[in-house]
Amino acid sequence: MPDTSDNVFRFVRDPDCAPTDRIKSAIRVVLCLMFLVACLIGYGAGVRAYQSGLAVERIDAEGYSVTGRVLSHTPPAATDSGVAALTSARIAWRDRQQGRHQQTMWIDISAASSGSISLWISGDGTAGRFRHSHDETVSNAVLTAVLVVLVSGCGLTASYLLMRLLLRRRDRRVVPGQDLDERWAEVEPRWRRQLL
């Protein structure tokens, strides 16, 4: 007996098919449309992430490089693979007007041990290890879009599989004591007449 319900992309039109097959077909169409909407949402999220990255680039473009002094840092934490590579440190530096500033950030253990570290001060006065690059902007935007589409696709796939399982159980309860082969034996003669 052929199982047309296993064809994910077939929209069932035959009047002799099980009612749940038509429901499955409708669900597939709806979920495909929802996935297209999710793709558009992912694209929009990627565009917004890209625009935010460009704004950060513009702010960083007005910045400058300074050498900061490590005032204190926490002891490096032990991990399963050894000692952590980063530690939380209190950094002090002077701006272009010789104003004093301090900020806590994560830095390399080696930099913390040396007592000094190179910083990039953005246009809004925030200190960071490196200047925000355009490659970072692009990668963040692509990652955001892909993540939205991937999560949506996994959710829709799980929803389809769950609905399909529930409908298959309902199929088995449509005619008590009658399995799918017996139902096909009833429908097959009508199919043959239509084909001949």
Structural description of this entry:
This protein is an alpha+beta fold. The chain contains four helices and seven strands; from the N terminus they run αβββββαββαα. A five-stranded antiparallel β-sheet has the order 5-4-1-6-7. α1 runs antiparallel to α3 (134-174). The protein is elongated and about 95 Å long.
Quick recap of the structure?
With 196 residues, the chain is of the alpha+beta class. It is built from 4 helices and 7 strands.
Q: Strand-residue fraction?
A: 15-25%
Termini Cα gap: 19 Å
Helical residues, percent: 40-55%
Give the low-confidence spans.
Answer: 1-12
Category from helices, strands and their pairing:
alpha+beta
Mean pLDDT: 77
Q: Quick one: biggest sheet? A: 5 strands, antiparallel
SS element count, helices: 4
Order of helices and strands: HEEEEEHEEHH
Large-scale geometry? elongated
Please state how the strands of the largest beta sheet are arranged side by side: 5-4-1-6-7
Radius of gyration: 31 Å
Strand tally, please?
Answer: 7
What secondary-structure arrangement, pairings included, does this model have?
Layout: H1 19-61, E1 64-73, E2 78-79, E3 82-83, E4 86-94, E5 100-108, H2 109-114, E6 116-121, E7 127-128, H3 134-174, H4 180-195
Antiparallel strand pairs: 1-4, 1-6, 2-3, 4-5, 6-7
Helix pairs in contact: 1-3
Keywords for this entry:
single chain, 196 residues, alpha+beta, five-stranded antiparallel β-sheet, two-stranded antiparallel sheet, 7 strands, disordered N terminus
